[in-house]
Write a sequence for this structure.
């Protein structure tokens, strides 16, 4: 973002529904930092190995090298002293410790950029992203296109039967929808009907 002065740490958050371009925006910012010859490191949760273990891959196949870690603490321990920009994708899959880790890194003078889902499949705030939005210096919401009506989409519609908060990997399990077309309890109704 503009007016960023080197050596002054801060936190940027990128949130939105699935398919809204969060990973693309994270990759774009990290690439620009690389062009500026800054030392960057990118982390993602181990849980998300859908496309690649050592890359972040967007739905449009844009990719950047990343390190898969188990916990937020691993990000802190894995960040090199001379790293200037720390990128983190799929922030919603980390625990609340990500807040302390993000603050710690920013207080060390690093620029921290975290992308993640702001809401779960029921439309509820998806921790720890809401808390990260609160402590961040900059928050950017990305929007997808509603696949039902074509308007701007902010919700992630689950299409398969599951009441688990985290279901990754299933192709065609989610789509982007706007407020009017979002059916939050569809996944639960499908689950109950087949029970
Ligand atoms: P996110 O990280 O938010 O899930 P990505 O950055 O991985 O999103 O992917 C964004 C890309 O997904 C878009 O640039 C577009 O090519 C593609 N895409 C597929 N479905 C949609 C949709 N319904 N709305 C917008 N983009 C979509
Ligand atoms: Zn719609």
């Amino acid at each position: 973002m503009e007016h960023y002065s080197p050596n002054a740490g801060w936190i940027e958050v990128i949130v939105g529904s699935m398919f809204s371009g969060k990973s693309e925006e994270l990759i774009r910012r990290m690439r620009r930092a690389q062009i500026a010859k800054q030392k960057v490191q990118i982390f993602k949760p181990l849980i998300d190995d859908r496309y690649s273990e050592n890359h972040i891959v967007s739905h449009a196949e844009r990719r950047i090298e990343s390190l898969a870690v188990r916990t937020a603490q691993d990000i802190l321990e894995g960040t090199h002293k001379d790293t200037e920009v720390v990128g983190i994708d799929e922030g919603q899959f980390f625990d609340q410790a990500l807040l302390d880790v993000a603050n710690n890194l920013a207080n060390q003078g690093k620029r921290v950029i975290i992308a993640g889902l702001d809401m779960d499949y029921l439309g509820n705030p998806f921790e720890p992203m809401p808390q990260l939005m609160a402590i961040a210096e900059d928050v950017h919401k990305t929007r997808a296109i509603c696949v039902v009506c074509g308007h701007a989409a902010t919700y992630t519609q689950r299409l398969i039967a599951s009441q688990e908060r985290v279901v990754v990997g299933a192709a065609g399990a989610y789509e982007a929808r706007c407020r009017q077309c979002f059916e939050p309890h569809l996944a639960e109704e499908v689950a109950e009907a087949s029970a």
